[in-house]
Give the backbone structure.
Amino acid sequence: MQDDLRKRGIIDPDDPQYRRRERPVIRKRRNIQAEREKRAQKAKKNRNRLVLFGIIFIIVVLLIRFGDLFTVSNIKYTFDNFGASIRGEDISTIDFTYEPENKYAMYKGGLVIGSSEGVRIRRPNKGDAFVASRTFSDIQIEKNDRYVIAYDYLGQGYTVISGTEVESSQTVDGSILTARLSRGGGYSILTKITGYRGVITDFGSNHQIIYQYYVAKDNIVDLQLSPNNRRMAAAYIDTESESLKGGVSFFDITKDEPVARYDIVGEIPLRVEYKENNLIAVLHSGGFIFFRPNGRVVGEYSFEGNIPYLADLSQSGYACAVIGSDTSGDNGELVIVNNSGDLRGSYKPDAAVKKVLTNNSCVFLYTADNELIVVDWRGNLQAEVQLDSNTRNVLMDESNNIYALGLSHVEKIDY
């Protein structure tokens, strides 16, 4: 209407009275816009509150329903295992019949059993979920975060399992001597064929051959691919030397021959392990040696005349071994060594140690008197757990949960 009056000349646009009338209208429009913004912000806050209250409600319901899962011992519970519990599976125990000649490992929430009937995975309340093969006469099992590899060490084939699926199953020329998984999903197969001490065949994570090396003179004791599947280390015994001599060969899979070789005179290599930090730890009959991938030594530790009974080299910051004098009544001593070869801790158990397990902060000793002893990486005692008298072994899964394997069931251990 004001526009119409302006056009007809009734209202002068320059009249101060006209401008005074206009200002309240403009001010009113600005206030409406501000109110809209305030309402939008308030609605957003209300939505955020509703989402927060919903999350809190779900957590409360879960705590009420699954409160027994949130104990101190289960702080490291994985989402996979938590999901299994929501689906109604009792993951704390697995029923089965123990056979002493079988091989056992915990893997992805199930018990892997290697027997003369093949490889199967026993899951809670579900029986044998999977049978990998019925052809193996003897099974060796290795595990990492992705795969289980099982093979007939007398010869003829191997199977790689991921979860409950067969990723690869192949027969080989000759006979399989050993096999190792790498942290990166690749693996190495050592076979024996006529005319050679061994044939090393490396496979990538896609199960395709990435490297092959024929060993004419040395006996390969152990081998492993690097986590990136680009290098390999192999421990050997020199069969042509007049004196006892072992050592380690270091490979780059883009080259035909080893890029470095380190001799260990007077000792027998036992184990080689690529660590997560790309260092290589070697256990031999007289101590530990730690290498760079190019074969340069970064640390050594001597057992000073003692011999190693059990060892674990897998942790990135340290390696440990139970050593002793092999005399009657000697229960041995746990020594914990860092990658520079320095002794960081030790512990003397009251009974003979039957198995050593480790995670990134603790060492677990399973002893002959059915105790699980937990010490930190400095050798300080953290816990002692008395196990059932029917316990035959202790196992660790990829989430660092500890299980006691008895005559009729596997049970998770609180520590």
